[in-house]
Amino acid sequence: MLDVLTVILLAAIVVVLVMWRRESGRRAEAQTVRHLLQTFGPAQVAVQQDPRQLLVWYPLAEASRTLYPEAFAAIDAATGGRFPFSRDTIERAHAKVSTEWLGWERAHDEEYRLKGAAVEQEIARSSGEAAVLARARLDRVQHEKIERYQQRYEEYIRTAKALQALLQ
């Protein structure tokens, strides 16, 4: 009789331990999901505000996916997409960078068109040494325009290519 009670008691202890371990695993998984949401939720906002942020957050998200595949699978299932950055998010970021570039380019052209026109008026009103100095200023304005354009264009190309690479 004692042997049967011992077996029943041991079986009950094993069942309790298995249930406790399962519950502990569920809690740990839920905590991991919460931490991922707390980490990458603000990252989604940051990327919407500044698409270049995606170049920092995306590799971190991919590394986290490797470390916590079950948690990401649960979040993906709950959100109906790839968390935190879907292909659509990357495409929108690329489009926003391109749109911002085009807007900057137009504003840049207008700014330097006005600067150049002002110096050209000064040249037309001047003579002698004043005209020579004004022409030098016009050359400087044109050089500055090209220099700023090249710097900004290089930045745009680097960012656009890096975002495009995320889609590969």
Secondary structural class: mainly alpha
Number of strands: 0
Task: Tell me the span between the first and last alpha carbons.
Answer: 69 Å
Mean pLDDT: 92
SSE sequence, one letter per element: HHHHH
Tell me the count of domains.
2
Share of helical residues: over 70%
3D architecture notes:
The relative contact order is 0.08. The chain has two domains: 83 residues; 78 residues. α2 crosses α3 and α4 runs antiparallel to α5. With 168 residues, the protein is mainly α. It has five helices and no strands.
Summarize the topology:
Blueprint: H1 2-49, H2 54-67, H3 69-79, H4 87-125, H5 128-166
Summarize the model shown.
It contains five helices and no strands. It is mostly helical. The longest helix is centred in the N-terminal third of the chain and has 48 residues.
Notable characteristics:
168 residues, single chain, mainly alpha
